[in-house]
Design a protein that fits this description.
Elements: H1 14-20, H2 22-28, H3 30-38, E1 40-44, H4 50-59, E2 64-68, H5 93-104, E3 109-113, H6 122-126, E4 132-135, H7 140-153, E5 156-160, E6 172-176, H8 184-196, E7 208-212, H9 255-274
Parallel strand pairs: 1-2, 1-4, 2-3, 4-5, 5-7
Antiparallel strand pairs: 6-7
Helix pairs in contact: 2-3, 4-9, 7-8
Length: 276
């Protein structure tokens, strides 16, 4: 057992902060590192994509993070979400992840927000005026509303499209949301943005999107529950926002795919900051 010493409890100073981010600092330099430490980013949706995006942003030195998700950690999140571990099942995803990120960088300002993003909560959430928004929402209605709200409010946003049903992370690409291909979620989002929110029918949306060119695999039927079929075990139970019982199909996921989506989202934000 390792004993905690007085040195471990010292308040961090700039020297210690610099040492923590020594390796990313060596990539971007002191001036760009200062930009990252001052940057403010909001990650909305803390699943397999969003939780890894948030962690990568924190480990890159982003100074202020808002973590937005209404849901609780479920045992089925264990294969892909940073906050899903023994002892965290049933706790709010935003709270668990915020605690984890605060340990990664104690000097960062990390705020957990237990809200479902929708038309009702949009104004309150976006009033924080983040420098960047990372959209990791898998609810199409909420996703489209967020993308339009960012467009209307002049907020820079990075969009993750569908990561489920894929097993090959080497097929992940980045393109303008108007120009992605194969992914059915992105196609559905485009249709709604154009028909409901007057996005251009031709040309770019000016929203960078992370997507996969891999076709979605149909889910296999599993038999570990004594042949009873799928049974929702979400700790929050049925809710009005996004319940697995209301979904027509639940695709399989691979953590190395969802995590790559999240890391690519984080890289887009970091690279935009250091090249601005």
């Amino acid at each position: 057992m390792t004993l905690t010493t007085d040195t471990d409890l010292e308040i961090e100073d700039n020297y210690r902060l610099h040492r923590r981010f020594d390796r990313i600092g060596r990539l971007v330099g002191d001036d760009k590192m200062a930009l990252l430490l001052r940057a403010k980013v909001m990650v909305i949706g803390l699943g397999g994509v969003g939780s890894l995006a948030a962690e990568a942003l924190c480990r890159s030195g982003i100074g202020q993070l808002w973590l937005v998700d209404f849901d609780k950690v479920c045992i089925t999140n264990s294969n892909r979400q940073s906050q899903a571990m023994q002892g965290t099942i049933g706790k709010f995803k935003a709270d668990v992840l915020a605690e984890r990120l605060q340990k990664i960088n104690p000097q960062a300002q990390v705020e957990a927000i237990r809200h479902f993003y929708n038309e009702r909560t949009s104004e309150q959430l976006l009033s924080h005026q983040p420098d960047y928004v990372v959209d990791c929402i898998d609810n199409i209605t909420a996703k489209c509303h967020l993308l339009n709200a960012c467009r209307q409010g002049g907020l820079a946003v990075v969009c993750s499209t569908g990561a489920s049903g894929r097993i090959d992370p080497t097929q992940i690409k980045v393109a303008d949301l108007a120009e992605t291909r194969i992914d059915p979620l992105a196609s559905a989002v485009r249709k709604i943005l154009r028909s409901k929110y007057a996005f251009p029918t031709k040309g770019k949306f000016n929203i960078p999107a992370v997507f996969s060119t891999e076709h979605t695999a149909e889910p296999h039927e599993l038999h570990y529950d004594e042949g009873k079929g799928f049974r929702c075990v979400c700790p929050g139970g049925k809710n009005d926002f996004h319940s697995c019982e209301d979904r027509s199909m639940i695709y399989g996921t691979a953590g190395f795919v969802t995590g790559t989506f999240g890391n690519v989202c984080a890289s887009l934000v970091v690279r935009q900051i250091v090249t601005s």
